[in-house]
Specification:
70 residues, alpha+beta
Length: 70
Amino acid sequence: MRTFPHRDFEHRIVRADGEVRHIHQITEVSFDEQCQPMREAGTIEDITERKLAEQTVRQSEERYNTWRRA
Protein backbone atom coordinates (compact mmCIF):
# COMPACT_ATOMS: atom_id res chain seq x y z
CA MET A 1 0.00 0.00 0.00
CA ARG A 2 1.31 3.46 -0.94
CA THR A 3 0.28 6.67 0.75
CA PHE A 4 0.77 9.95 -1.05
CA PRO A 5 1.39 13.28 0.65
CA HIS A 6 -1.71 14.90 2.03
CA ARG A 7 -3.71 17.50 0.17
CA ASP A 8 -4.41 20.69 2.08
CA PHE A 9 -6.91 23.13 0.61
CA GLU A 10 -9.73 25.55 1.32
CA HIS A 11 -12.98 25.77 -0.56
CA ARG A 12 -16.37 27.39 -0.39
CA ILE A 13 -19.64 25.49 -0.20
CA VAL A 14 -23.22 26.63 -0.59
CA ARG A 15 -25.64 24.79 1.63
CA ALA A 16 -29.12 23.73 0.49
CA ASP A 17 -30.58 26.75 2.34
CA GLY A 18 -28.27 29.10 0.38
CA GLU A 19 -25.87 29.78 3.24
CA VAL A 20 -22.22 30.05 2.18
CA ARG A 21 -19.60 28.33 4.35
CA HIS A 22 -15.81 28.20 4.02
CA ILE A 23 -14.10 24.87 4.63
CA HIS A 24 -10.47 23.84 5.26
CA GLN A 25 -9.81 20.23 4.27
CA ILE A 26 -6.75 18.02 4.75
CA THR A 27 -6.92 14.63 3.01
CA GLU A 28 -4.54 11.69 2.60
CA VAL A 29 -5.28 8.80 0.23
CA SER A 30 -3.72 5.32 0.35
CA PHE A 31 -3.52 3.15 -2.77
CA ASP A 32 -3.02 -0.58 -3.30
CA GLU A 33 -0.40 -2.15 -5.60
CA GLN A 34 -2.68 -1.63 -8.64
CA CYS A 35 -2.93 2.09 -7.82
CA GLN A 36 -6.56 1.75 -6.77
CA PRO A 37 -7.60 3.96 -3.85
CA MET A 38 -8.08 1.91 -0.70
CA ARG A 39 -8.53 4.43 2.08
CA GLU A 40 -9.01 8.13 2.57
CA ALA A 41 -8.46 9.85 5.90
CA GLY A 42 -8.52 13.49 6.82
CA THR A 43 -10.21 16.40 8.52
CA ILE A 44 -12.70 19.05 7.52
CA GLU A 45 -12.95 22.29 9.49
CA ASP A 46 -15.48 25.09 9.11
CA ILE A 47 -13.40 28.29 8.83
CA THR A 48 -16.24 30.64 7.92
CA GLU A 49 -15.73 32.88 10.96
CA ARG A 50 -12.02 33.25 10.18
CA LYS A 51 -12.76 34.15 6.56
CA LEU A 52 -15.31 36.76 7.65
CA ALA A 53 -12.79 38.26 10.10
CA GLU A 54 -10.12 38.40 7.37
CA GLN A 55 -12.59 40.17 5.07
CA THR A 56 -13.44 42.70 7.79
CA VAL A 57 -9.73 43.47 8.32
CA ARG A 58 -9.17 43.91 4.55
CA GLN A 59 -12.12 46.29 4.27
CA SER A 60 -10.90 48.28 7.28
CA GLU A 61 -7.41 48.57 5.78
CA GLU A 62 -8.88 49.70 2.45
CA ARG A 63 -10.95 52.41 4.19
CA TYR A 64 -7.90 53.57 6.14
CA ASN A 65 -5.71 53.73 3.03
CA THR A 66 -8.43 55.65 1.14
CA TRP A 67 -8.75 58.12 4.03
CA ARG A 68 -4.96 58.50 4.30
CA ARG A 69 -4.59 59.33 0.58
CA ALA A 70 -7.36 61.95 0.67
